[in-house]
Give the backbone structure.
Amino acid sequence: MINDKVSQKIVDIIQNYARKHSLWVLAYGTGCGAIEIPPTMTSRYDAERLGVRGAATPRQADVLLITGYLTTKTLKRVIRVYEQMQDPKYVIGFGSCTINGGMYFDSYNTIKALDRYLPVDVYINGCMPRPEAVLEGFAKLQELIQAGKADGSKKYKENLEWYRANQKEVIPVWRMPEFNW
Amino acid sequence: MEELKKKITQKITDHFADAAVKKYEGNRVDFTVKKETIPAILFFLKDEMGYNHLSHISCVDWLEEKEFELIYIVWSYTDHLKVFVHTRVDRENAVMDNIDMIWRQANTYEREIKEMYGIHFEGLEAPEEFLLEDWEDMPPMRRDFDTHAYARKTFWDRQEARSDAQDVRETITKRTGEEIPDVAKKYSR
Amino acid sequence: MMEEILHYTWGAVVSFVLAFSVGITFMGLNRKVTARVQNRIGPPWYQNFIDVVKLYSKKSAIHHGTMHHLGPAFLMVSSVMSLLIIPILNDGKFFPNLNFQGDLIFLIYIMTFGPLGMALGAGQTGNPNSAIGVTRGLAQMAGFEIPWVMALVALMIQYKTTSIVDLMNIQAETGRWLMFSSPFAFIAAIMAMFGMFRYAPFDIVGAPAELASGPMSENGGKYLFTMMSSGSVFAFAKLTLYADLFLGGADNLPELVAKTFVLYMIPVLYGVVNPRYRTEQAVRWFWGWPSFFGLLAILQASFF
């Protein structure tokens, strides 16, 4: 194959076009914001026009939606799910609990800033965001994919020690398998 | 409804000498007993008076009086009357009898109270971790556990607000011309 | 000799490209029709092409051993073999294929070979969802194979031949489609088609809400690309087989696409308004009315 810049650019354009128009969302509602996902996917605010579809397992999914607060118990499982997904993968944080703790800012059990434990691409603010806001969030993710800037998975692989140190600080008993990338 | 309340009050005070009654309006009657009579009074309510539904077991932390208060809520399908049974338990050595031979679902309520408040129930089976995972601190629902300090220590501390942050109520009232009521002015920045 | 081999290879490649594009378009049209029935705008009709390109461009491929890696390849082999046997157009000039006497029986075998290979691959992952999904899929296959084989056996008895090309020639000679000459076989075969396509109400095998999508639950990226492509090629092969056997084949490509589209709409439109059957309900349904029509077809073929 010819490996110069022009053909690489053409391949990138085709790949980004395909990736942004077919986002498969993992059907996993981690917090109370998962109640806004069914209205977005069904008849009134149709998200399937953008190619967004529900996927059953992490091996088939592209996007992980963290909808709302994450307790430390759920964080352990979400990290395991995130590491099972295949590259390239994106994380969208819903609601104000992922940004700065939100309504549960003084709770002993929920994490306050999602960006320290998982690499986040797009935040959607609100408590909970309406389906129109969710669709705008997907449109913003599509813009980022087209510009080639949605590289959360690369950031995770490069700064793995920093993320692991933060995660182990909150989860005292660490019993997770080793994954192949 | 009034005859039913009078009937149940009469029956309970006849059988149990240390029951103090407090009546409320509507379909609710409260009794306060010592903690040793709890299994007996609950058996009596279930078998002879027909109150065979346990709605909840609730717990209140009286920090100043150094006691926990346990409240057992039972309901009768025939009389449509709620009966609340209160007891007080000592806060230092909190030990209580286990009632899950009367209703099986009391197991779940007692496990939650054991984990969140630290009351030890005798003979409670399966007392493993239920809601919290790998928790080594003091039981978190007690009032002398400072949860905000714990959150600031373990997790990330929320930064100060921006200097140009606006209160959304002021913005809206400037647009519509209303007034913020005095009660709400206390919470403005 | 060399020229013949080149001719056949060229024919295989062109058939595969045609089956792939038409199959993927039909899957996209399925999503569009479902969306319109549910009163919303659905994805565009070329959506499945975009899905397939996205699955191909995934960067990592995680597998659990050799058999799991080869699982989707078995599916692809089965689909391509079925495609090569079925005549696409009436004259074998532009799409040559490998027909011989007795290829109808060979086809029945090849069509069941794919899911069995997939089951071996899914078994190596150790995921209990895959194992349960695979057993459900094979149990359902035992269900719909009965009316399907009964319909084909009725055709073989009635016209005393086991070759697809002979059956097409009979339709060309008498001028009547086999749909009208052996109607019970047609009805039994259409009822068996619901089980083959695995749309509702028989989609308990691969549905995402049940059982984390069954046999496909550990495959992602390029494996899923192979499975989707082989699914679309297989769907086109089955539809072409039905068009050849019962609707008189096709003389040119637009006629073939029109006939397969009409046949394809039958499971789609039936599936859009139906909930799901459990496995035992599905098998019990297949051994009820469809087998009855298959029995009638065999009786009609032997005695009339």
Notes: Chains B and C do not touch (no CB pair under 8 Å). Residues 162-189 of chain B form one domain. The radius of gyration of chain B is 23 Å.
